[in-house]
Amino acid sequence: MAGPKFDSKEWQRTSQRSAPEQESSDVDDNAAQPVPSAGRASDRPLERYIALKPIVAFGLTLQSSWEAIAISFQSSLLNGGPISLVYGMLIVTLGSTALAASLGEMASVDPAVGAQYRWAARYAPRSMKPQFWGFMQGWLTVLAWIASCALTPFTLGTMLQGLIEFNYPDYAPKPWHGTLLMWVFIVLPVFWNFFARRLLVALEITGGIFHFIFFLATVVTLGVLVPRNSNDFVWNTSVSGLSGWNNSGVTFCLGLLSPAFAVAGFDGVLHMSDETKDAPRRAPRGMVLTVVINGILAFCFIICLMYTMGDLDTALTSTSLPILTVFYNATGSVPATNALMSFIIIVSCIGDFSIFASVSRLTWAFARDRGLPFSDFFAYVHPTLKIPVNALGLVAVLCALLALINLGSSVAFYAVISLSTLSLFISYIPPITFLLIRKLQGQHTPSGPWNLGRFGIPINVFGLCYAIFMIVWLPFPTQLPVTGRTMNYAAPVWGGCMLLAMLDYVTTGRKRFQIEG
């Protein structure tokens, strides 16, 4: 049976009433507070137990930005060189901060687990079929995050394989090795989410502390032990032609993709909104602080890395993990190199726990709003564990199945996980665009504790321009000539997913989907 249509005027009146109430309510940080059940299929509420420090630490480990740069900087050296990493990190941090601040305006009024898909439906003009935008946005966001969820265990498995290969040169990595390692890093966070949910706060705080301590240990080690590259190399060196692209402008833009990936996914914090205390204040603040702090750490790490990585050609032609070469050249010791690499793996592993928690909540929220088939089943919240167990199981099974693709074709697997960053950037555009249209038309837009005020429109516009710019470049192949192995499949995979979502909408989705709040 079709649910009642969304009434934007009624929601606006409700938001005007609820925002001041949310702003004036002081919550007890020492008490876990139940969230009123908003969905028909959600049997039980989640529980609010996450304060500001844990939610910031959650975002820091979920992104693991300086760690992400450490294992992916080679791609930017091929396209653009040091200047793409150094100046690119500044550009993407500013752009991601603008996007996070813009989403924060909506999160402060409606701190929803579903985030972008709820806001796309609720801010879209009635003439543009808000239900359609919400439904398509929901599928887009869920698929993007499931792809990201598969990417994290894959990256962890790749790092372990690289470390094994470094210690045992005779080791020959096989695709099934990677698949088995992926499964390990799928089972571990699922087990933790099932049986140690209330320890998530302690785990995230620990991960946040490790994130800083390991950063300092790595930077100090490289800075003290390694001879310096010249200032000209770090700040002025541009690279083109190595990847097949000869235009310096193109290579610079392609070199931004690695820094952009390092600070993307900040909206993962919002998926924990129903478990965050005083979410109208803390969810937006946690999201923006995540981008700013991680952006600063990643920028500082890039500067250190560019000064200490040694010869450019050596870094480009070294092992599958060039950071191992950098560490070994710095320390001259295999155990010390293993220790430095373990710093990255430990924080990334905690980030693995974070992303499974985040994506399972997003999937649960979309099921609660009847966006998924078998919505009642996937919207179930366990009465004792207080987590969406079926949604978590769905995410884990899908990631495990995606890992099987790697057995047949690594190209096909990369095609799937390439969906993540592109889809995330696309998911930011509709809700911010609809919010901006309302502002430019002079319509009343409800505001919460996080309010950009007179700077809102310029920040919204800058964030949108940055997202559109990244969407243009993310589907580009990073190497020429384009072959089956160097093709960037992000755009066609995204298009195929959206066609399936459209098919779902025109058949049963439009009849079952309903935003509740």
UniProtKB/TrEMBL annotation:
Residues 13-22 have a biased composition (Polar residues). It is found in: Membrane. It comes from the Eukaryota. The keyword Transport applies. Keywords: Membrane, Transmembrane, Transmembrane helix, Transport. GO terms for biological process: amino acid transport. InterPro entries: AA/rel_permease1 (IPR002293), Amino_acid_permease_CS (IPR004840). This is Amino acid transporter. GO terms for cellular component: membrane.
